[in-house]
Known about the structure:
The chain is mainly α. It has helices at about 1-25, 40-70. Keywords: Membrane, Transmembrane, Transmembrane helix.
Amino acid sequence: MVKRALKSAIGVSIGTTIGGVxxxxxxxxxxxxxxxxxxxxxxxxxxxxxxxxxxxxxxxIEWIKNKMRIGR
Length: 72
C-alpha cells in the first residue's frame, strides 16, 4: 500500500513541478523579476511539497480502497 502510494506520487509531483514552475519560468520569463527565488530552489521546493501532498492523498485513496475491499 505504501509502495504503491510512493510510486504514484512521483509521477504526479514531477508533472506538477514541470507545469507549475519550469514551463511558466521558461515561457513567461519577462514576468519573473529578481524577487523570485532561483529556478532550481523553487523547483526543488515545489517538488518536495507536491510529492508529500500527493503521497498522502494516494495513501488515503489506497486506505479507502483497502477498507472497501475488507468491508465486503
